[in-house]
Write a structure and sequence with these properties.
Length: 362
Amino acid sequence: MSDDPDLPSRRNSRSRKGRKVRTRGQRIRRGVLVTLLVLVLAGGGTLYWLYSRLDGNITGVDIDKALGDNRPQKLPTSGQNLLVLGSDSRAGAENKELGGGGDVSGARSDTAMVVHIPEGRSKAVAVSIPRDTLVTRPECVKADGSAVPTANRVMFNSVYSQVGPACVVKTVEQMSGVRIDHYLEINFAGFKDLVDAIGGVTVEVEKPIHDKSSGLDLSAGSHKLDGTQSLAYVRTRHGIGDGSDLGRIGLQQQFLLALLSEVKSQDLLGSPTKSYKVASSATKSLTTDSELASLTSLAEFARSMNGVDPGSMETIMLPVAYDKQDPNRVVAAEPQAGELWKAIRKDATIPESAKKSPATGG
């Protein structure tokens, strides 16, 4: 060892290296699921085939190609906007069973949220769009290249089944003026399996829920839900409020935060087997825009989200009013909806007045 006091000792060097490793490990543990998986699975050459298998699970949709250049401008900052859909596809035996069976063809967007991550990546806002909202569907092109003309007063959740995910993105961009940077979709089976893979999600039920249609029967208080119960929880509409779609949106938002918190709190890095099980469940039913359609891309995006704490995420329902022609449907309420979308377009603070909805669903 050198006697020169100006030269660092090997022990100090090793100590600093150890601190760096521990600090890096702590950052990784605070990361989301996909980041962990890329480091655990892709890091070992003997496990590369597992990584490849997970990578191949993800379905990509080329949103940019489908929509062209006639789109809202990107945010003036480094903020990001994601459209997150939960689809009620009946494709496959498991999805059909979870959807309640029956002769239901195609799929609809059962849950839709625009997630806005402002510049700085330290917080996020999730705006739920009620599925019964009447919108103007823009002219779109299907995956087979055929054109679908514009249509007025169509239910928002029907756009997915009629034209496909790219048209859902275009519809949201047209109604909001907000540029959607990324698209993520998960179906019934994937949602159920993900919850089961992480060992369930705990929710706080404010009022008893008794839904004969789904079989969901929960007393007020804390409940740890498995995958099937969780799916019923986010889809129930007969056991809460006035039985409309609006009543369950609060449950969906609450569950999203609880799910994110559960994933983030688990030491998945310390359990590669569990990491793989969770990742397999998450990716096998996942559809994203083509830019995110790989584990590597998802991991890079996830790393940029490390600072977002689910506990600080704000959840808002798009302000809506009951439609005058059909009280079973809603329309965007003005000026509240316009103010909400304007704040997101400018990456600005959302005013309290823009969060109040005339229609609440009881």
